[in-house]
Design brief:
The complex is a heterodimer of chains A (81) and B (379).
Chain A (H helix, E strand, L loop, with lengths): L1 H21 L5 H23 L6 H20 L5
Helix pairs in contact in A: 1-2
Chain B lengths: L8 H13 L2 H13 L3 H25 L5 H9 L1 H18 L1 H16 L5 H18 L1 H26 L16 H15 L6 H5 L9 H27 L9 H8 L1 E2 L3 E2 L2 H30 L9 H14 L4 H52 L1
Antiparallel strand pairs in B: 1-2
Helix pairs in contact in B: 1-8, 1-11, 1-13, 2-3, 2-9, 2-11, 3-9, 3-11, 3-15, 4-5, 4-15, 5-13, 5-15, 6-7, 6-13, 6-14, 7-13, 7-14, 8-13, 9-15, 12-13
Classes of the chains: A mainly alpha (81), B mainly alpha (379).
């Protein structure tokens, strides 16, 4: 729990530093995007710190690419490698 | 986007070299020897040849669309919507598969070989923060760092290779050409998938930023070739010193450095290879990350890409900690995911773009040819 709080606070700190540094250079769209992506990063990190099981996106990537890998393996005659 | 950033062609050469060497200097010999055994050096030569052809293809792509980066090329070739989807796919997948894996490699190496009791997460965090800092400062600063670090890297590399010469036994290369061409080609794929195909993403970061535009293609090509040569020598020395045993080690170059012993005085200098790896991995990570940030900014139509650096950096650190639950999973992912992705990115994509671009060019010429006679009549 302490780790999750620490991650949240570091997210707030990062937002404060970035917005202060940027001043008026940052427009509304950039602000929203910044907060959205940061929110995803901080949110996922907090969930991991708490120990909530999150599906690994790499599993989906492996499932997507595996057929192409099998094709390559067949082409190079490297079955079993 | 900051258009004022400029780098020289020499800096581009160094960055291409570092990107090519990347993580491969420590792990590649093991993979090549596992597949091609004592013929690993031949597979490496084959890989350099394939690499030269592919980089030539990428340079052809730049020549066809001068001054445009990958995303602008996609828009020009596929149209706004489909081009946007292609750009998003390439950027998102490279962002998701590239930088987190590089950080994971470093964490794994440090926790296995050097700082055994330190949790890998602290290494991931520190290296991730370093990458965020570097990308936030911009490609110009990164290129200058490359200029400072390259002599250090090269002297260490040269020293290491020279000190290994007394341990060389040429019998370890025999029998030469024991494996058929297909096996050698398969082994060479493991070089090009990490060191050649992904280099196309550098076109995202550097198009229009090199001061001597005419020298840029040559520098890009030479950088890749030079990096390939460094890896070739490393693989050759690994086979000559360790022989087929190279396949047994996760990090054969580290074992090579451990074997150096000159007069019981110069010994235990394996940290040299660690320093070299820190340097090359840093550039690989930063170049991946920078191209992802520039790519997302281009797709989302953001003027200043610096605002994306910190949030995306935090995501990279998170993915580096969660993408790979263990080493076996990571080794499996390296093969089943990264090989097809790098094929899409480095082979299929440029060929499709070149063909479509060529057809579009021909159609334009044809249309001009049809319109010209009527124009002249009207005139």
């Amino acid at each position: 729990m302490i780790a999750a709080i620490f991650i949240f606070l570091s997210g707030v700190l990062v937002t404060w530093i970035e917005f202060r540094r940027a001043g008026r250079q940052i427009n509304r769209k950039e602000q929203i995007l910044f907060l959205f992506i940061l929110g995803i990063g901080i949110g996922l990190s907090m969930l991991k710190a708490i120990g909530v099981p999150i599906p690994n996106p790499m599993d989906f990537a492996i499932a997507f690419y595996h057929p192409f890998y099998d094709l390559l393996i067949e082409f190079f005659g490297q079955k079993g490698s | 986007m900051n258009q004022e950033e400029k780098i020289s062609s020499y800096q581009l050469l160094l960055l291409a070299t570092f990107f090519t060497v990347g993580s491969s200097i420590l792990e590649l010999p093991s993979t090549l020897v596992t597949i091609a055994e004592q013929d690993a050096w031949i597979a490496m030569l084959l890989g350099i040849a394939i690499s030269a052809i592919m980089v030539g293809l990428y340079l052809l792509l730049i020549r066809q669309y001068p001054g445009k980066n990958l995303h602008q090329i996609n828009e020009a070739v596929f149209g706004r919507k489909i081009g946007g989807i292609v750009s998003f796919y390439l950027t998102a997948m490279t962002f998701f598969l590239g930088p987190p894996t590089v950080i994971y490699y470093l964490g794994r190496f440090l926790s296995i070989q050097i700082m055994v009791e330190t949790p890998a997460s602290s290494t991931h965090l520190l290296y991730g923060l370093l990458a965020i800092f570097a990308v936030a400062l911009g490609i110009e600063v990164i290129a200058r760092v490359a200029e400072i670090l390259f002599p250090i890297f090269f002297i260490l590399y040269l020293g290491l290779m020279l000190l290994l010469i007394p341990l060389v036994e040429f019998e370890r290369l025999q029998p030469v050409f024991e494996h058929d061409f297909k096996t050698l080609l398969w082994a060479s794929i493991f070089y090009v998938q990490f060191s050649c195909f992904p280099i196309i993403i550098m076109l995202t970061s550097f198009q229009g930023k090199v001061t001597q535009q005419k020298k840029a293609p040559k520098a890009f090509f030479l950088g890749n070739f030079f990096g390939g040569s460094i890896l070739f020598i490393t693989t050759l020395i690994s086979v000559l010193v360790l022989g087929k045993l190279t396949a047994l080690f996760n990090f054969p170059s580290y074992v090579l450095a451990q074997k150096i012993n000159v007069g019981d005085f110069i010994q235990r200098i394996e940290m040299v290879i660690t320093v070299m790896w820190f340097i090359t991995l840093f550039f690989k990570l930063v170049l991946y990350f920078d191209s992802a940030v520039v790519g997302f900014a281009e797709i989302l139509k953001i003027k200043n890409h610096r605002f994306l650096v910190v949030p995306l950096g935090i995501l990279i650190i998170y993915f580096s900690l969660t993408n790979f639950p263990n080493d076996v999973y990571q080794l499996n992912q390296d093969k089943t995911t990264w090989i097809p992705h790098s094929f899409f990115l480095g082979v299929l994509y440029p060929i499709v773009v070149l063909i479509i671009g060529f057809v579009q060019g021909k159609l334009k010429e044809k249309r001009k040819g049809i319109h010209r006679p009527s124009e002249s009549k009207g005139g």
